[in-house]
């Protein structure tokens, strides 16, 4: 059996609520986002999960990890996809998180670079908890399932849940 990987998306931010592309820029957690992050910690504790945790260096993920009660090691590979000049701009209505790389602006991270980062993360030792971002939550889950990037937009990226990837597939806590 494959040791589990627990994947958490950071709590809701001001920019999530207003529909802006965040990428490498930061936005504070909303009151709901703070509740979501604390809930993720409670879900992990209730399930008896006590394994190493790794977090994106971006503030919204680090704050979520702290609110979840996790002492996490910063891992730059868990950063959100860089959206270049599009960061801070409204997200186009047709741009779902699983395909944001299709709407990349000048200076944005390429699909190949993102996939290389995700491959490194998936190759690391397990069990582990990862606190990361929407595009990475989708990409990690898609790659673990063997889905091509064209199918990433079939997956969701809710906040406040814990995805569990193991030898039996994927399930959610929460």
From TrEMBL:
Among CDD domains, the record links this protein to: HP_PGM_like
Lineage of the native species? Answer: Bacteria, Pseudomonadati, Pseudomonadota, Alphaproteobacteria, Rhodobacterales
- List the protein's name: Probable phosphoglycerate mutase
Domain of life (superkingdom): Bacteria
**Any idea which positions bind substrate?**
9-16, 60
Gene3D superfamilies named among the record's database cross-references: Phosphoglycerate mutase-like
What is the native source organism of this protein? Jannaschia seohaensis
Q: Name one GO molecular function term.
A: phosphatase activity
